[in-house]
Amino acid sequence: xxxxxxxxRLYPQFARxxxxxxxxxxxxxxxxxxxxxxxxxxxxxxxxxxxxxTSRHLQALxxxxxxxxxxQGTRVFYSLADDSVLRLWLALRxxxxxxLAEVDLISREFFPAREQWPPVSRPDLQxxxxxxxxxxxxxxxxxxxxxxxxxxxxxxxxxxxxxxxxELPRDLPIVAYCRGEYCLFADEAVALLRKNGFQAxxxxxxxxxxxxxxxxxxMSL
Length: 221
Known about the structure:
Strand content: 5-15%
Largest sheet: 4 strands, parallel
Oligomer: single chain
Structural class: alpha/beta
Radius of gyration: 19 Å
Number of domains: 2
Shape: globular
Number of helices: 12
CATH architecture of the largest domain: 3-Layer(aba) Sandwich
CATH class of the largest domain: Alpha Beta
CATH superfamily of the largest domain: Rhodanese-like domain
């Protein structure tokens, strides 16, 4: 009977996590919070939801202890509770990639250039950084760069790239990275750079994948 009792009490707690992850909008919120902490208004703007709806989803994540809050002045900011939440989100995504053919079909539809211009692996980029043989650009929003970035990365949000592109070196390969495997910013940067004669590639994955592997980063205080 003790065996049954412990399961009856434990499994509902595990189910709280599953329930919190059962919304595509809440997964999108976790993906955004993996980049930087944000307030509810900023998250609502990014996700295209109303502030009220965004707040409801955040309360569900808070209830499951998946996100934390902190105050800056009068505003409340949300962030992932810890690195285990990031690992959980990426693991969920990995299972979807391996089990759901639809994920591959969507990837091929929206990221066709990756077959023509293969991404640079994270170990290969690490070597290029160590040997100073690459110009690395972070094309995420500046807020996310300031929260944390790869060593030696130059902040160039994707919308600013056309104006500053001429300042980039042509004697080094350029690697762009962004929010992760399913972010289009780096693909757009690579397409623009290659169109203008640069040797450019995107990083395989992006900031979350680099971070969860424990590679060296530059974090804000």
